[in-house]
């Protein structure tokens, strides 16, 4: 589909002599994977660290009330005071 509206038909013409044989079906190519030896013995711990408890969402943001003019003046006086 082009632009979710128009269909585009594509035909591929191939020389039959050049075509390979059809591969076997996927079900015949898939074999059962051998079981993990550690999983079958039931011994040892897991190194997989996933699945544990989460870290949480964090705390609620605490808003400080604004400083008064007197508090700001006191901070300025302390800052500019010679040492």
UniProtKB/TrEMBL annotation:
Ranges of residues in domain Chromatin target of PRMT1 protein C-terminal: 23-83
Q: Mind telling me which Pfam families this protein's record contains?
A: FoP_duplication
Q: What GO MF annotations does this protein's record show?
A: RNA binding
Keywords (alphabetical) are: RNA-binding
Region annotation (Disordered) ranges: 34-67
Native source species: Neolecta irregularis (strain DAH-3)
What is this protein's name? Answer: Chromatin target of PRMT1 protein C-terminal domain-containing protein
Q: Which residues form the signal peptide?
A: none
| Annotated InterPro entries | FoP_C
């Amino acid at each position: 589909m082009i632009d979710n509206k128009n269909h585009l038909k594509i035909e591929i013409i191939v020389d039959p002599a050049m075509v390979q044989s059809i591969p076997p079906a996927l079900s015949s190519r898939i074999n059962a994977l051998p079981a993990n030896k550690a999983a079958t013995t039931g011994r040892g711990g897991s190194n997989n660290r996933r699945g544990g408890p989460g870290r949480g969402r964090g705390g609620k943001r605490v808003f400080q009330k604004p400083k008064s003019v007197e508090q700001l003046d006191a901070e300025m006086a302390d800052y500019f005071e010679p040492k």
